[in-house]
Amino acid sequence: KKEVDEANQGYKDGDIDLDTTRQRVAAAKENYTDAVINMLSETFPETFNKNNRLNVLSAKGDAEGQAFTKHAGKGEATAQRKEFVAEVGSAYPTAWVDARNQQGIRVFNENKRAYANSMGYIAIQRDGTRGTTIHEVGHLMQDVIPGLSDLEAAYRIKRATKNSAGNPEEYSMRRGERSFKSDTDLHPYTLKTYREQYESYYRMKLTERDVAAEEITIGMQALFAPYMFDALDKADILDFTLGAMLTLNGKMNGKA
Predict the structure, then answer these.
(1) Which residues of 189-203 are buried (b: 16+ CB within 10 A; e: fewer)?
(2) Dihedral (C-alpha) 157, 162, 167, 168: value to the nearest 10 degrees?
(3) What pLDDT score was predicted for residue 222?
(4) What is the rounded CA–CA span in Å between residue 121 and residue 187?
(5) Contact yes or no for 116/123 (Cβ under 8 A)
(6) Which residues, including other chains, have CB under 8 Å from residue 111's CB and lie 6 or more apart?
(7) Is the Cβ–Cβ distance between 105 and 91 less than 8 Å?
(8) 116: β partners
(9) What is the pLDDT of residues 130-182, one digit of tens each?
(10) What pLDDT is attached to residue 81?
């Protein structure tokens, strides 16, 4: 953060030009993410490994994948972009990466916004950051990690404000998306859920534990790319994220 602030201040003071500022800021962010990955690998070697890689599959001939691109992407990603996504595995627990790799990931270039779905498809900007990529991979983890959706739902209900009947208070976000109100200083995106979209797709009522949400994804961005979401100093999303990764990785290895 200090390096990023110094680079931006240098630009404001006229000491360095805009291109140099961008280069210094980008380098500082990359260094920050690398430092967190290395720290976790060294501190929790049974859980994290900086050499973890995601299994990125070819999408050629995949009819469902081609249908996915019609609303979320612009065709299969380049080999360079696939390699970029594969390396994001270093941010996730080893048992999580192994579970995800059993199904693999198919990567497309994004159309309007980064996107992921339960089929293992992910759409990422051609110039997307590791923070965005780590976020979207988090959605893919929700579909394969036992107990993760339960923990997210419990966290969401706990942090939401309650009405007179004791039920979580909801509010609508843009594009018809919904979240829960909270009297904490959580970023509003953190308690967002996709229940309505899932119910519309599956044509059935679902519980909070059955749908994609944003807790682990925002927590991962707060941990590895805090400039994406101002959540690093807010509530206990970092405690939740690290706790979820350590606990569920241990259970998957039979050690918790």
Answers:
(1) ebbbbbbeeeeeeee
(2) -40
(3) 85
(4) 26
(5) yes
(6) 69, 71, 72, 73, 74, 123
(7) no
(8) 122
(9) 888 999 999 999 889 999 989 998 888 888 777 777 777 777 666 666 777 77
(10) 84
Neighbours of 239 (CB within 10 A): 10
Distance of alpha carbon 242 from alpha carbon 239, whole angstroms: 5
DSSP the chain: -HHHHHHHHHHHTTSS-HHHHHHHHHHHHHHHHHHHHHHHHHH-TTT--TT----EEP-TT-HHHHHHHHHHEEEEPPHHHHHHHHHGGGGS-HHHHHHHHTT-EEEEEESSS-EE-TTSEEEE-TT--HHHHHHHHHHHHHTTSTTHHHHHHHHHHHHS-B-TTSPBPEEE-GGG-EEE--SS---GGGG-B-HHHHHHHHTS---GGGS-BSHHHHHHHHHH-TTTSS-TTSTTHHHHHHHHHHHHHHHHTT--
Cα 182 to Cα 158: distance, rounded to the nearest angstrom = 9
What is the reported pTM?
Answer: 0.82
CA angle 126, 86, 146 (to 5 degrees): 115
Q: What angle do CA 124, 210, 186 make, to 5 degrees?
A: 65
* Tokens linked to 209: 């534990």
Judge contact between 241 and 216, C-beta under 8 A.
Answer: yes
Query: Do residues 252 and 148 touch, judged by C-beta distance below 8 A?
Result: no
- Residue in the block written with tokens 């959605």: 139
Distance in angstroms (rounded) separating the CA atoms of residues 241 and 186: 14
Distance CA 242, CA 84 (A): 23
